[in-house]
Structure prediction request, 114 residues.
Amino acid sequence: MTDATARAAALLREHRESIDRLDAILVYTLAERFKHTQAVGRLKAEHGLPPSDPAREAQQIARLEGLARQADLDPEFARKFLAFIISEVIRHHERHQSSGAHAGAATQDQTQET
Prediction:
């Protein structure tokens, strides 16, 4: 192996280690984000609020596109990434709505039985 090839291999290893650390940060950051969105979903379900907030979602997408430009990241990629996350959040909120509705119906049934 030449010196140039050995240096390239070492640089490749360093880049991959950095990528692995960043992937871990992304996963833990998304997990933390979803903890908060789950809490939001429960609050929305408890108070009869709709699972989706299109105005908020549009603001978030615009904000993320701006951040992407500042970070020299493709804003279209950032928009698609956030759109995917938002769709997952809405799906979770809808699940809270339906489980909340079932829980409310079960409580009503139990009350009517006694």
Residues 3-113 form a domain with the Chorismate Mutase Domain, subunit A fold (CATH 1.20.59.10). The first helix runs from residue 3 to 46. The chain has one domain: 3-113. The two ends are 82 Å apart (CA to CA).
